[in-house]
Amino acid sequence: MTNKTALVLGATGLVGTQLVKEINNSEIYKEVHLLTRRKMECKEPKCKVHIADFDKLSNYADSFNVTDVFICLGTTIKKAKSKEAFCKVDFEYVIEAAKVAKTSNVEKLLVITAMGANSKSKFFYSRVKGDVEGALQQLEMNSVHIFRPSLLLGERKEYRAGEKISGMLSSFTKFLFVGPLRPYRAIEAKNVAAAMYAAAQTKNLGYHYYNSDEIEKLAQGVSI
């Protein structure tokens, strides 16, 4: 048993929910702090929930005094209702959290972006994710792990028809995504969470990027 501590942002999301389960079941972490925008329940003894104004994350620097920070934030244009609101969650909150994590000298920062993240992409979503990765690089932190999953599979708390249909199609056509197409295969959210947990236990310094096929490999051996 060790005395590591963790902070999770986006703990109510598809990956975040699975990640909190993994950390709570781990003997490596003694505490997991959840920074949320609204009230939530976590009955696990290791859980400590902190309700925060994400527009003022620097005011909650004490919550970042942990070993590892996991950022699982993300929304959709439909839910956010505008590109500006989408950027606030998927870019501004992520980068501000990373800055506070750097100031707090955390050992590792682990962040989810997306497959195809590219600041020069013609697609708005991919461009924002690419901008996130670029801004993280500029922070020059000691150890950053960036996860680029393809379509996420799992039971969401809110219904997303498009993703539900895409997920079903991906399950039926899974055998087609082999060889060079393997990184494009849909991935279970629990495997992304397992990979994030596994990466946090490595001693790798610098910046590390994981596409879906690499996430699957990293998740092997971790049970949620």
Characterization of the model:
With 224 residues, the protein is α/β, with parallel strands linked by helices. The protein has seven helices and nine strands. A seven-stranded parallel sheet has the order 3-2-1-4-5-6-9, sandwiched between helices. A two-stranded parallel ribbon has the order 7-8. Helix 6 (189-200) packs across helix 7. The longest helix is centred in the middle third of the chain and has 21 residues, at 83-103. The model is unreliable at 162-170 and 175-179 (pLDDT under 50).
Total DSSP helices: 7
Distance between the termini: 18 Å
Strand content: 15-25%
The strand line-up of the biggest sheet is 3-2-1-4-5-6-9
**Main sheet, how many strands, which sense, barrel?**
7 strands, parallel
Overall body shape: globular
Helix content: 25-40%
- Secondary-structure element series: EHEEEHHEHEEHEHEH
Low-confidence stretches: 162-170, 175-179
Task: Please sum up the structure shown.
With 224 residues, the chain is an alpha/beta fold. It has helices spanning 14-24, 77-80, 83-103, 124-139, 161-172, 189-200, 212-219, and strands spanning 4-9, 29-36, 47-51, 68-71, 108-112, 143-148, 152-153, 187-188, 206-211.
Give me the secondary-structure topology.
Elements: E1 4-9, H1 14-24, E2 29-36, E3 47-51, E4 68-71, H2 77-80, H3 83-103, E5 108-112, H4 124-139, E6 143-148, E7 152-153, H5 161-172, E8 187-188, H6 189-200, E9 206-211, H7 212-219
Parallel strand pairs: 1-2, 1-4, 2-3, 4-5, 5-6, 6-9, 7-8
Helix pairs in contact: 1-6, 3-4, 6-7
